[in-house]
């Protein structure tokens, strides 16, 4: 049976909206000048869901330009965790099935990964933009040698306008990833908070460079 990609994408977006409205149970684990990171046990798999929240010195449009999940987008240039991003199938104007590959990480303890997700882009009436994703299978995307297949559970980023400050954006992101393979839990638990801090730091540089 064919996967209901659009339905799965909508489901991921609904989960993001629930997480955004649900302040309970988050425990802080890392704070930098750019982001505060917290976590709680995931309801989707046997790991954690991580929440990153920070204010970026750029308009929501500029932030979106840097993070939007499109072929040939800017993300592969600034995000050290995205080696390659390709659209496998465009389902509609706002939904696509994508494959992301990541380089080895954490002093090569974590070998290169690949992720196949359905991704949804959505704009709200207040100007907030959401990119939401969750793992799927696709006939054109069987597992490749030299990569461990990881799985993203519902995850995403909200670019939220900052009232009265057109050159500020609140970026609220949720990461929920099973890296696959056989990694010690201590490695996984150290990797994600550091990774999210790096994501915000590199994105901040990218939006500044975009405006320069």
TrEMBL record:
One of its GO terms (molecular function) is cholesterol binding. Gene3D superfamilies: 3.30.530.20. Residues 1-212 form the START domain. One of its GO terms (biological process) is cholesterol import. InterPro entries: StARD5/6, START-like_dom_sf, START_lipid-bd_dom. Coiled coil: none annotated. Keywords: Lipid transport, Lipid-binding, Transport. This is STAR5 protein. It comes from Bucco capensis (collared puffbird).
């Amino acid at each position: 049976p064919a996967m209901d990609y659009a339905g799965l994408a909508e489901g991921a977006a609904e989960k993001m909206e629930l997480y955004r409205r649900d302040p309970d149970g988050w425990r802080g684990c890392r704070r930098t000048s750019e982001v505060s990171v917290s976590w709680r046990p995931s309801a989707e798999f046997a790991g954690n869901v991580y929440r990153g929240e920070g204010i970026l010195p750029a308009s929501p449009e500029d932030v979106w330009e840097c993070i939007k999940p499109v072929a040939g987008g800017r993300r592969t240039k600034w995000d050290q965790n995205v080696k390659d991003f390709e659209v496998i199938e465009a389902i509609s104007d706002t939904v696509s099935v994508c494959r992301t590959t990541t380089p080895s990480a954490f002093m090569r303890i974590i070998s290169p990964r690949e992720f196949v997700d359905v991704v949804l882009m959505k704009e709200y009436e207040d100007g907030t933009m959401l990119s939401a994703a969750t793992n799927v299978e696709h006939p054109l995307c069987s597992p490749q040698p030299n990569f461990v297949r990881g799985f993203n559970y519902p995850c995403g980023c909200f670019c939220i306008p900052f009232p009265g400050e057109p050159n500020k954006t609140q970026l609220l992101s949720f990461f929920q990833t099973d890296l696959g393979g056989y990694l010690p839990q201590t490695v996984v638990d150290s990797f994600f908070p550091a990774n999210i801090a790096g994501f915000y730091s590199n994105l901040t540089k990218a939006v500044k460079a975009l405006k320069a």
